[in-house]
Amino acid sequence: MTELIKKSAVAAIMIALGDFVLLKIGAPLGAFLFAFGLLGVCALGANLFTGKAGAMKKNGFKIQDMLVILVVNLVIGYLIGLLMSFCDESVKTAAIDKVATWDFSVAFLIKAFFCGAIMFITVQSFKKTPLSVFAGVPLFILCGFQHCIANIITLGIANTWHWSIILAIAGNWLGAITVSWLLGTLFQTKAKKKSKQ
Fold this sequence. Notes:
Elements: H1 2-25, H2 29-44, H3 49-52, H4 56-59, H5 63-84, H6 89-99, H7 106-126, H8 133-142, H9 148-158, H10 164-196
């Protein structure tokens, strides 16, 4: 359990670094530099909720493990965000402006869904090509999709709260497990075809 918590805390810190630079310099360069955060998560084997959500069985995680990862990601992410709010007033202002564009809507949920799908594909692709993070991360950012852990960090930096975080969590999870389920079905179908031949 201690190892699970530590690795989840490291993931929150890595994503916080990416979120800070994105708020500091904006897109498109900030979107590519944000990828350093996910690169660190994957390389260090840290526990990021959006990276693990679609591969629970593969990673040997149970529902309670995923809840621990999520809670630690959220709590540490928000606290790191609060600390970062003292670093640069322009970043805090950017965070406040960003939160002001969020809403509690179906559109927001859909944006989170697609982010979850991209994150699952990106993390799974990392094992074959680490450079995948420099495509996946800028993709979800430039599309305006919503990442729950990045969002909680932004809330911390802005020193505020927004209930859309619930939609971000739900959407990210649904997006990841949907792609995971589709790929699982695909592999099962291929396996059946081979066994018939």
